[in-house]
Write a structure and sequence with these properties.
The complex is a heterotrimer of chains A (105), B (663) and C (169).
Chain A: H1 3-6, H2 9-29, H3 33-58, H4 62-92
Chain B: H1 8-23, H2 29-56, E1 64-74, E2 77-85, H3 87-110, H4 117-136, H5 140-158, H6 165-196, H7 201-210, H8 217-234, H9 243-246, H10 252-261, H11 264-273, H12 275-279, H13 282-303, H14 309-329, H15 333-360, H16 378-392, H17 398-412, H18 418-443, H19 451-456, H20 462-477, H21 485-488, H22 491-499, H23 506-515, H24 518-527, H25 537-564, H26 568-575, H27 577-584, H28 589-635, H29 643-662
Antiparallel strand pairs in B: 1-2
Chain C: H1 3-22, H2 26-46, H3 50-75, H4 89-114, H5 131-138, H6 143-165
Helix pairs in contact in C: 1-2, 2-3
The chains are: A mainly alpha (105), B mainly alpha (663), C mainly alpha (169).
């Protein structure tokens, strides 16, 4: 008996969905942009878990390649996002996303 | 078939256009004008080479054809950019480029002080190019390109001094009136394509010649009438002649180019080119002859009383074009084209002579304020006189020969008759009279201009007067190319004709492969059951005598009324003021068109603007904009600017999408 | 009893994910996220994705999270945020409702599609998830996306530098 026969595919899916939902709720209730970013990372990782599990389940490796790309994009996004946060902070010494609403219609 | 340079004929002026249009302002004036003139000279040289080559070929092979490239090749339409040089187009290209070249040279002197000098020459070259394209085209579509090209150039050149509102209006008038004719021409072209399945001259004419009765006469008549309607626009016939008299708002060389070499001859050329179609539609031919005769008389009557020197000449052009169409209408296409050629000489000479006068008089065009100019301008006077005698039909001048051929055919042709001949002869009398009037009033009698102007009158520079002399030579001797057989019997005339290397009706014989002979016309008409009237030289001589007497009488009357007793004309005018006013106001045709065509058109346009455009279209557009504005105002509230609201929206969207996908 | 490791590690991941969302201190949140990422990395290893495991630890738990912490220290925002209570209660409620609906949907789908329990195939290639296989795939089937990725990274790099250098008015 190894982990593959003991834990069904549905369990991985459920874990992935749970983590994703936690990340989404976090994004909705937190106002610190850095924490919101981390929630995004959490959601991305939930997606990654799903991809890797599916790859194993179907015994094809394409899912892992997608994970690789997701990570690359996530890295790029974090670099730019944090640079924006730093730039905003320099200007107003305060980072609360609800204060940044100049773009409203 | 080894003459491969046809494409050079239109290309030369086109190169001139590009040089003058793009770098003309960088060049010295003389260079700019010289390039334009040389470009046309190039065409002339190639044209003459082509003509000589044609003459070297046996009579039945005198067609040079050169296709450059496929232009449109879709489905049933297969059109090439191809040129054809047969006797007809050879004569036309020689006239166009020859007279055109002389006018270009003249323009270098006439326009010397104009600020838009290179532009003028670019337009002139473009004009020549379009006309050469029209004449050389081997199919209707390419001909139409040139057809439109000359309309465009006439607009540009008539309105060349566009600072003057009258010039701008005249340019627009020329263009718009021409459009009416062009529209008919397009329709005719479409009819031809539907009927014959081709637009190439060769194909269409071969089909008609092979099976003349295959196409119903009604169809042929419709086609020919539509084509002729196009010709009335371009060649200034009733009812579309109104643009030509206004066209003298342009610089005088332009008038000469329009009246003598290009543009107005296009209609005659087209009718002659399509003569095979026309001879199979006798009704259309009668219309052509009738319109031509009516126009000749009508324009000559108006010309009697006009006081603007160029306006008189313009009406005389309309009148002479009427003669040409009369010739075509009675099946004497060669005579019509011959009149195109002789007319090109003396009309160019008349216009350039009047330009010389206007130049000397500082832009004065009213003959009532001229007089006695012969003592300052001998060259202009003598050349102008030669042209006057030629157009009046004094024996052995070119105009006499060409005009008398037309009158003879008008009398003798199965399609003609005494009525046409009478109209033609009366017109000849009127022509002699009004030309004598203009010449006497301008060059003879007491000077009527003020002292200041008088002091500045001078003969024109050499570039202008040499051109006048060359044209005068042509105006005198061009007639010997086509001496009628009846006159050849008079020994000195026959001898002189042979001296020029010509014999009886050389020109008509040369043109015969292109436009057919009287015999061909007669045969075609026989097929349509028309009676042929026998003709005789005796009658030809007698009729000729009548014309000559009337012409001399006309000139003598002019001499009496305007030199001997200068007040008599005015007293005649006063005795019938309504007639005088009718003629002076050109039969109120412009006013009639204004009331019947222009006003309703303006009214319709005003209605479309105020009624349709503003009230309907603009209203719809504004309503759409307002509705969008209202909705965006409503939905603007969604854009709160709070990141987390957007995120909530995304989650909501994800929920919906997942629900839809997994349903 | 081989499902015990799965449950343990999953519990750790969920716990620290919740801690990230609920903690008032951003630095604590970052550290808990590191733990989530590491536990997911273990899962990747269990699922036969060796290369992804390495990258997850090195890039995510290492580089990216270090970047987060670095920015936090630079801006000195460690415990800056106010308590969650400051959120209007309807926002909290709406967020939780939305999350629950999302989760419910996912669960429903899993339940319907899964028909109870589905197991992984036992037989699998020996080199499944190895760096060689990943490399072969990246440089054959996925060559174009891979090259485009380099452009994305370049753009991000330039963007970050420009944003950092620019003096905003």
């Amino acid at each position: 008996m190894d982990i593959y026969s003991a834990v069904p595919f549905s369990a991985w899916l459920a874990l992935s969905g749970l983590l994703f939902t936690i990340g989404a709720i976090g994004f909705l209730i937190r106002r610190d942009p850095i924490v919101m970013f981390m929630c995004i990372e959490l959601m991305l990782n939930a997606g990654n878990l799903l991809l890797v599990a599916s790859a194993r389940y179907r015994a094809v490796m394409d899912g892992q390649i997608y994970v690789f790309f997701v990570m690359t994009v996530a890295a790029a996004e974090v670099a730019v996002g944090l640079a924006i946060i730093v730039a905003i902070f320099r200007q107003r010494l305060d980072i609360d996303v609800d204060e940044m609403s100049e773009m409203r219609g | 078939m080894d003459f491969k340079y046809l494409w050079l004929i239109p290309l030369c002026p086109l190169i001139g256009v590009f040089i003058n249009a793009f770098i003309g302002h960088l060049l010295p004036r003389k260079v700019s004008g010289a390039i334009a003139s040389l470009a046309v000279l190039g065409s002339l040289i190639v044209s003459v080479m082509g003509l000589l080559h044609l003459l070297g070929l046996p009579e039945d092979q005198r067609v040079l054809h050169q296709s450059l490239f496929d232009w449109i090749a879709t489905g049933a339409v297969h059109t090439q950019v191809a040129f054809v040089l047969d006797p007809l187009s050879a004569v036309m290209v020689c006239v166009v480029s020859g007279i055109g070249f002389l006018i270009h040279v003249y323009s270098m002197g006439y326009m010397a002080h104009d600020p838009r000098y290179p532009r003028f020459f670019a337009y002139m070259n473009l004009f020549t190019f379009a006309m050469l394209l029209l004449v050389l085209a081997d199919n209707f579509l390419l001909m139409y390109v040139g057809w439109e090209g000359v309309a465009l150039c006439s607009y540009l050149l008539i309105g060349f001094w566009f600072e003057r509102p009258s010039a701008a209006a005249a340019g627009q008038k020329a263009f718009i009136v021409n459009r009416v004719g062009d529209w008919c021409f397009i329709l005719g072209m479409l009819f031809i394509f539907v009927t014959f399945g081709s637009l190439t001259f060769q194909d269409v004419f071969a089909k008609v010649a092979a099976a003349p009765l295959a196409v119903p006469t009604v169809t042929m008549t419709i086609i020919c009438l539509l084509l002729f309607a196009g010709a009335t626009g371009k060649s200034a016939q009733i009812p579309l002649y109104v643009w030509l008299p206004d066209a003298m708002e342009g610089p005088t060389p332009v008038s000469a180019l329009i009246h003598a070499a290009t543009m107005v001859t296009a209609g005659v050329y087209m009718v002659a080119r399509c003569h095979i179609l026309f001879v199979h539609a006798p009704v259309a031919l009668m219309v052509v002859a009738g319109i031509g005769a009516a126009t000749a008389l009508f324009a000559a009557l108006i010309g009697l009383v006009q006081n603007d020197i160029k306006r008189v000449l313009a009406y005389s052009t309309v009148s002479q074009l009427g003669y040409m169409f009369m010739a075509c209408g009675v099946g004497a296409f060669a005579a019509g084209i011959f009149h195109v050629m002789t007319h090109a000489f003396f009309k160019a000479l008349l216009f350039l002579g009047s330009g010389s006068v206007i130049h000397a008089m500082h832009d004065e065009q009213d003959i009532r304020r001229m007089g006695g100019l012969s003592r300052w301008m001998p060259v202009t006077t003598w050349t102008f006189w030669i042209a006057t005698l030629a157009i009046a039909g004094i024996p052995l001048f070119s105009g006499f020969i060409s005009k008398d051929q037309i009158l003879w055919y008008a009398f003798s042709s199965p399609l003609g008759g005494v009525v046409l001949w009478t109209v033609g002869v009366v017109t000849a009398l009127l022509t002699a009279f009004y030309m004598a009037r203009v010449t006497y009033k301008t060059f003879h009698g007491q000077p009527r201009m003020d002292e200041e102007t008088q002091r500045h009158i001078h003969e024109s520079p050499a570039s202008m007067s040499i051109v006048l002399i060359l044209l005068a030579v042509g105006a005198v001797f061009a007639g010997f190319l086509n001496m009628p057989e009846a006159l050849m019997k008079i020994a000195p005339i026959g001898w002189l004709t042979h001296l020029f290397g010509a014999s009886a009706e050389t020109f008509s014989d040369f043109l015969a492969p292109s436009v057919g002979t009287q015999a061909d016309v007669a045969r075609a008409l026989e097929m349509l059951h028309r009676q042929i009237v026998p003709t005789s030289h005796v009658w030809e001589m007698r009729l000729m005598g009548v014309t000559v007497v009337l012409s001399v009488l006309g000139i003598y009357a002019g001499y009496q009324m305007y030199v001997r007793k200068p007040g008599s004309a005015w007293s005649i005018a006063r005795s019938a003021p309504w007639l005088y006013n009718l003629l002076l106001n050109k039969f109120y045709v412009d006013e009639f068109y204004k009331a019947v065509v222009v006003r309703p058109g303006m009214g319709l346009a005003y209605f479309l603007w105020r009624g349709i455009d503003v009230l309907v279209i603009d209203a719809i557009v504004n309503a759409v904009a307002t509705i969008v504005g209202i909705f965006s105002h409503l939905f603007r509230g969604l854009q709160t600017g709070y990141v987390r609201n957007y995120a909530a929206g995304m989650v909501l969207g994800a929920i919906v999408v997942i629900w839809v996908l997994t349903r | 009893m081989t499902w015990i490791p799965f449950v343990l590690i999953a519990a750790v991941a969920v716990f620290f994910a919740l801690y990230l969302v609920l903690s008032k201190n951003a630095v604590h949140g970052a550290l808990s996220l590191v733990l989530v990422l590491v536990s997911l990395a273990i899962f990747f290893l269990l699922l036969g994705a060796e290369f992804i495991f390495i990258v997850q630890v090195a890039v995510y738990a290492g580089a990216i999270m270090v970047l987060f912490l670095f920015v936090m220290m630079l801006l000195n925002v460690g415990g800056a945020e106010g308590p969650l209570r400051e959120n209007p209660s309807w926002q909290l409620a709406a967020a939780i409702v939305l999350g629950c609906v999302l989760l419910f949907e996912a669960a429903l789908h899993i339940a319907r599609a899964g028909e109870g329990v589905r197991h992984f195939p036992q037989a699998i290639a020996a080199d499944f998830g190895s760096p060689e296989r990943i490399g072969q795939l990246l440089f054959s089937s996925y060559l174009l996306p891979f090259e485009i990725t380099s452009l994305v990274l370049l753009a991000a790099m330039i963007g970050a530098v420009v944003l950092a250098l620019r003096r905003f008015p």
